[in-house]
Automatic annotation (TrEMBL):
Substrate binds at residues 160-164, 215-219, 255, 262-268, 333-334, 445. Keywords: NAD, Oxidoreductase. InterPro entries: 6-PGluconate_DH-like_C_sf, NAD(P)-bd_dom_sf, UDP-Glc/GDP-Man, UDP-Glc/GDP-Man_DH_C, UDP-Glc/GDP-Man_DH_C_sf, UDP-Glc/GDP-Man_DH_dimer, UDP-Glc/GDP-Man_DH_N, UDPglc_DH_euk. The gene is tuaD. Catalyzes the conversion of UDP-glucose into UDP-glucuronate, one of the precursors of teichuronic acid. This is UDP-glucose 6-dehydrogenase.
Amino acid sequence: PIAVKKICCIGAGYVGGPTMAMIAKQCPHIQVTVVDINQQRIDEWNSEELPIYEPGLHEIVSECRGKNLTFTTDVDETIRDADMVFISVNTPTKTFGVGAGRAANLEFVEKCARKIAEVSIGHKIVVEKSTLPVRTAEAVKTILSNSTTGASFDVLSNPEFLAEGTAVEDLISPDRVLIGGENETAINALVEVYANWVPRERLLTTNLWSSELSKLTANAFLAQRVSSINAISALCEATGADVDEVSTAIGTDSRIGPKFLKASVGFGGSCFQKDILNLVYLCEYFGLPEVAQYWEQVVTMNDHQKQRFVNRMVRTMFNTVSDKRIAIWGFAFKKDTNDIRESAAIYVCRDLLMEKAKLAIYDPQVKPEQMRAALESVMQDENGELNAMKRELLDNNVQYCDNGAAAADDAHAIAVLTEWDEFKDCDFEAIRDSMKQPAFVFDGRNLLKHADLCDKGFTYFGIGF
Ligand code: NAI
């Protein structure tokens, strides 16, 4: 058996950082080094202000950093030294060429494989941690087999199932850890790493392709549940049914289960849409157009849900939001993270801006420059340019606020776009008095207490009733 002593992880992002911090914490006998080509990110991991916000993460990093957890840009040296190398780089949707808008861009993964082939000596276990299209390991193996250093390699697939916002919890007690591979010895080496804290019955081993495909499938199923309940929310609004009541009623059926049945303004995050589109692309590639169309509807429904939300706001506010101040509560794609990738808030804000609304945005963890950059990027044309009208809207019609009450001050409406806990405990009477009347609330997360807000004189709209 191979006993892993040194781990290198390429990619110090939302996955690489927390997963490696957890391995370092649980395995004091293993030296864990996270490398990245982004100097600023590495500097942040070495500072008191980590590049990502996750409850409990700071404590773990502080505990292990300087002992068996290191963050560095010294990529070559760290790979050469390691017994096991994780590839945890980004795999965004391709924006150009064949498969643009659907296929995963595997440029960064391929560069990692080439780098590992170039600098390795001896034997290494290479672990795919990034979410990858099924059969990527084939390409990784081919690249590694062309190494001219005499090194030998095993390739494993070990997709990550953590959810942002609960990364630490998910890593401490995962529902399962999935390890796909061909070589028993290599699989066991990784099993033994996780067995330091994960019960053995939760360590699932499969062949490489099942492991790669399971990650895309898991995300497709999760997103499909959200789109399914969101589709029903539209029907609820049309008929007088209440989607939260419907969710409870169906979720108590043990075959359906209660989780991931919350209607909302739509799912966001870097993964769901990207992974489904990747699945759609794969189905088309393998000659399965009906299967592709089936999954694509999940994304179509999600886009529809965001548009429906904005349309309802405009329609309710007497068919115009032009020049009206609207408080945007929350910009992150979900609570307890500072990640805004594909956040529904970006698209809702863009569409409200195009209606010439004046936005007052507040999020407890997202910095104004992040929000500005995200809005700019969705308002640019195909050449990456922002026309004068849109630039003016971004400059003059968006204000970034320090708290929810400040955003709501003098506003016609509040739009709740992220389910941050702090929004539940606001002084709603004071907020109502500071707003224009009627004071509208559009709760895109069904977060606030409906009856209570109505009692306090708000005109309240949630999702799906
Ligand atoms: P990220 O964008 O936060 O981090 C990726 C990092 O890799 C960046 O810091 C980038 O500079 C670095 N990088 C890129 N190319 C490199 C190279 N050649 N050498 C060294 N560093 C390089 O991405 P994130 O969110 O951590 O995702 C990574 C993978 O994990 C993706 O495939 C994603 O689909 C998957 N995943 C993400 C989850 C999430 O919640 N964010 C959950 C589960 C899987």
